[in-house]
Write a structure and sequence with these properties.
It contains 17 helices and 15 strands. The protein has helices at about 15-25, 45-50, 65-70, 90, 130, 145-150, 155-160, 185-190, 195-200, 210-215, 285-290, 320-330, 365-375, 380-390, 485-490, 525-530, 530-535; strands at about 1-5, 35, 80, 100, 105, 110-115, 120-125, 170-175, 220-225, 230-235, 250-255, 265-270, 280, 360-365, 505-510. The radius of gyration is 22 Å and the shape is globular.
Length: about 550
Amino acid sequence: MKVAVAGCCHGALDKMYETLELLQRRHNVRPDLLLCCGDFQAVRNEADLRCMAVPAKYRHMQTFYRYYSGEKKAPVLTVFIGGNHEASNHLQELPYGGWVAPNIYYLGYAGVVRFRGVRIGGISGIFKSHDYRKGHFECPPYNQQTIRSAYHVRNIEVFKLKQLKHPMDIFMSHDWPRSIYHYGNKKQLLKMKSFFRQEVESNTLGSPAASELLQHLKPSYWFSAHLHVKFAAFMQHQTNSKEELPKATKFLALDKCLPHRDFLQIVDIEHDPTAGDSLEYDAEWIAVLKATNSLVNVTQSSWNMPENNGLHAKWDYSATEEAIKEVLEELNHNLKIPCNFTLTAACYDPSKPQKNMEPVHTINPQTTEFCAQFGLTDINDRIQQVKEEGSVRGEYEEEEEEEEMDSTGSAEEPSEYNTDNSGLSSINPDEIMLDDEGGDEDLSTCSVDPSPDHPPEFSASFSDIRIMPDSMAVSSDDAMDSTNEELEKSGVSKQVEEKSLNERPLKRIGGNENGNSGIKKIKRRNQAIYAAEDEDKTE
């Protein structure tokens, strides 16, 4: 089947789908599936705009709301992951994934689904080591820290994905796996993006967590975005035994969605011709979610995932064939994901702008149904419970000592990645420059002869196979990804501090509500976070 892959679309859904229609008219190519690698910007209204960690001048409604309201429908099944430019309050409603609009599916913090027999996985957000070991504790209204930490990758999602044993066809991440640039035209990449040089030479560009997943999952295809440049690479993985067949990954990073940019890639993927056209759950992934449910953490306390180091009674949470069989039996062997999209917020009306609309913490009925069906913890419901119990610490209280970890983790265990970012100062000036016109050159093909530093183009035969060097392994002194430091550093001189979670009750949405009711004022100390006159300073 033909799969279209897009990079950062930044809410420009009309343009993206119009490009697909143009492709069909001119070249008679009609994709069966569209994958988007983050910065999707599923913005429904003005409140969602306030939950995006971008300067005010980049906060535009764009066109997603038309698909959310039902005015338009995506012409092709669209599956996406989250990036670092998202309406975090909206995506947070669907931690395990779900429909954000008819025919548009979000994979959640991490997720695996199947379409026509093709196994598709992904992880949302970007890597930042200082938040990596925390739980998903954030909820709207966000402060100046949580509006960013909400989209940072957590170790529990990586741990879940590392429990998977069955082969992966396609995997998506927003930021690149660290070291992947060594397997493509690195020289041309640095020519186009010279500000990457320091990170490339020190091997700190990209996500060490994504690199770890790349080594474990060994998918046939890996798609990324984030750095706003098109780049291809080919990696031959090492085998663990002589009996194991060699595996290779074709990597492709996509450019952002802008006029006159080649931001879409069409890839032919082998599929099961007998499979249906519906998006389906992945039985092994559901079994892993059930097995790891006890590890869910919704506090700011840091912990490491269980491992075979003598500190944990259990460290293997992979799904047995029996557990997978149980999932299939629970579903009566019908893995079709229900089309149960529900409006959970008021939709933007251009004729009636509501500039003072404020974000609320919402439970999505899709998540409620999913958790009830598989016996999982509703993360947002649990956040509300913890908030009511008064046990959330960190940003929402005066700085206190971290509470001791329970038997599933140890506060004394060392972090998997170095959290010292004092030496990282380089930024990615292209990170939020959505209106720039530079960088049109396509790095997915090579303008030089193949060599160790210049492998052949992505569309070629991939005959230049190289073995993964030891540098691909994630070491304990890996520093955090610094390509997004421009967004991570705040220029505001006066930091807004949260002493406690907002006391207003969590908003639970029923299937027949549109999200208009129950919205209350944000506390005065939070208003500065969303004030329009201060937004330009926050980045």
